[in-house]
What does this fold into?
Amino acid sequence: MAGYFTMLETDVLVVGGGVAGSMAAIPALEAGLKVVICEKGKVLDHCGSVGCGVDHYLTVMDTGPEWDTPEFLLKHVPDLTDGIVDMVVAGRVIREMPRIFRKIESFGVDFKDKKLGTYYRLRSFGLPGTYHINFDGTDFKKHIGERVRKGKASVLMRTMVVQLLVKDNRAYGALAFNFRSGEWYAIRAKAVVLAAGDVNRISHNASGLAFDSWHFPYNTGDAQAMGYHAGAQLANMESVEATLTPKGFSTQGLNALVSLGAYFVNKSGERFMFRYDKKGENARRAVLADAVINEYLLGNGPIYLDCRHLSEEMLDHMEHTLQVDRYTLPAYYQQKGVNFRTELVEISVSELSIRRSGVYFRGSGLAVDEDGETSVCGLFAAGDCATVSGGIAGAAVLGHIAGEGTVKCVRKNTASLPEIDKAAIESVRARASASLGRKDGVAWKAFEGETRDVVTDYVGVRRTAKGLQMALDTLRALAKKEPLLKADDLHGVMRVEEAVNVRLNAEIMATASLAREETRTGSAHWRLDFPKTDDKNWRKFVIVERGAQGPSVRTLSVDQPLSAAFDRSTSAV
Amino acid sequence: MAKQNEAVFNPIRINADTCVRCDLCDWICPGDLIYKEADNKEKLPVVAYPDECWYCGLCQSICPTNAITVIFPECMIHNKTDVVTLLGKVLE
It folds into this structure.
């Protein structure tokens, strides 16, 4: 890997070609800017978080009724997020929803139900209206990817961005490498959008397979880690997310069945969800997962999914929907020998991830302002790595907002960019080369496994100060092994970088969890030593940023937007 | 060129009789697991990192001759894990 590297110049660099990254690229391309997208997988035609298509899309459409207006939904956002939300950014996202929805429709995405000839809108996840369009979104991302291609963005596939270039709190590019060819890129850009998704592979699940995860296991908090190193602020990192999955296969798709009318029952056959929320199975995802966790802890497991009461027509519809989110789900049920139409399906709690803790409009990740810009000038974030997140629609809308933000940023900042930091290039490349040549080093799988062990046991759904402190000590000790990590090949170099990012995200999560001395959103942040929600003292964001001794914490009242904590005075531009 | 790791369960089964040795499975795999030597009509695609599979089935869905089947391992099909063990240890 010590050979050449390619220098690239662009207006906008986008890290991640999922929904948020692609939607960010589109307005930049429309404005005539040069765009480079670095994509670790090859997901330009698929969603970055779920790999396949989508089966639901959340939007207000402004069709007339009050519930369908942005202001109505916005009024409910504090309740939906248990009060911890950046209302300024959430407000912009929700108000932009109808415009972005129609723009995606204009790309050729057909949101209408073929039988009904109109939108099939459902109420789910505790939302105060039928905001979820249930549709066949197999080609949803293909249409968006097509737009990016038509706009002539340069897309570097199988390319991982490993470090941002920042000077005087201003981002001016990044360093990346292609893990097939070993080619290095030094990319100078006037604006950078981080859209590399959530943090997975961070705790254990039922199958024990690290890559069997609900969301994409190849999303490893790269954006959060790089943003942190670049000096960007992160918020809500204490909130963890789990979902409910068929036991043994951490797949999405189960919640879609629930929104179509399936029940959860415990070992006694009791439909218990109403004990936890008056909306029953229509409660927020955080509440659903929390209820099942509680049922298991009460000894009421196993917990099952029950579809037996549904009509043949609905079961047919469900069967068709199953494979939209995850193509292999029907084959899984077949190999398992379970017929969900006539039998109970045992379910489990998935592994944990850092995303948006089962609620809409409160993301865990890089703090952004209403243009999607982080506390570092010229550095934007959108999708599951940003502090306002809302599934596919959230990624699409904030992605587009961030893309428009880059256009403003590029036009405003006409000063020339700094020269690329040659020392940074050499240091990053030397680190990669050393891991590749190391014979007796630490295997990334073992290293990452240690992160998962400690997160599962002490940073998961039952937290105490003592456990979190022990986790932090262990994670910091683990960091000392990073210079010893070894890779067998270029692919392994990428996995080493990912394993390092997963560990750092775990440390940030443990740091934020220790700071928030209360419980909020059930098991998303459940402190056994502070079991109550404390609105008097904790209507605050926990903000984490790089300090001299590792992650440092501060808090900010939720009455202010996160950008109130941004200090851009040191910026050169 | 990456080699098949025989010691690890391989969920991506490629039928050598029906595989036409194109590179679509290599092209689409989001985890960079499948490697197909370019311009070699003799060699099958290699599942180089089978334990990093996400079980998404994109390889199976794109295969032009249905030569790929995704097989789930025993720990996913008949899972015996006590869910409570995933819910953390309590240190007070």
In short: Chain B has a mean pLDDT of 92. Chain B has one domain: 12-86.
